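Troubleshooting: if your tokenizer reports a length mismatch, compare your output against this known-good record of 325 residues.
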Amino acid sequence: MVGVVSVVAIAVGGFLYFTKLETNKAPAIAAIAPGPASSPMPMPAPSASPMVGKFPADSVPFIGERIRGYLGGEYSVAGDYKAFALNVGGITGSALNQPNEEAARNAALDQCQKRADAAQSPRPCELYAVGNNVVYTHGKPPMPPQPFIRHDPMTERAFVPKDFPMVRDPAKVRLENMFVPAAKSRSVALGPGGQYFMVMGASSADDAARRSLESCGAIAGVACMVVAVDENFVVPIPTLLRITGFFHAASNASIATDARDEVVRKLADGMGWNAVAVGTAGRPGVGLKAADEQTAVNSALADCARRDSDCHVIAIGPFTVGPVN
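Known-good structure output:
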């Protein structure tokens, strides 16, 4: 079984729960919610034309390995008329051996939507395939580069819901009550606007990470980040300063334009604790591969002080940071 966050819906591969933070009330498989200062983001705009061709079961987003197995086997070899529908929460519906194409479309959508309604999922079901042709118009959701999970013993630590970044207290309570006790494999992906989506009971950590990223990315419209897998945070979680967002050195306005590429290059390895500081002229200083957060901060400030004045830390690990309120 696999889960989300709000109400329970039966999908081909298990139970799914999907909803906004404000309406989330019951346990489930994957969950997404806006953060403290964000509003729900629209789905990515449809592409100009639908994708067609041989049915690609391995590239269907949002779903687990069990449903992919069904699509690559029973569904793929079935003759016309057939259809498959899904929503971004991973809820699905399918229809085989229908009398005509319209009946197949309607039956798949109806099955999927009934499951979504039962789960109180805020996202509608859409046709993904008719026959073996993909007709889904949104394309693939935005995803970060692989690997989706990087295990680093210097920064990885036990998952503590109260330390989960960029979400409100009710979301932290849900993480405590739902994610912590859930079956493995489980993953939480976080969006830059404070959206989050969790998948529980997946077949593997990689499967959980992929699914949480796909669903989060489809809602946020931009790539999300895997923050927790099973019982651990898998990215550095700053505690010395307040986390304010995602850090992208290549476009950060606080860093002088001619210095951004160098910061990107220095941070490319990404292992250990890293920090970035800037001064009044935007000249950056970096602390790299430190064994702890404080050492990275001290190194970044010292490096910045050699080339600028009034230096302050703007990033720790993958996050932008600011003064603690």
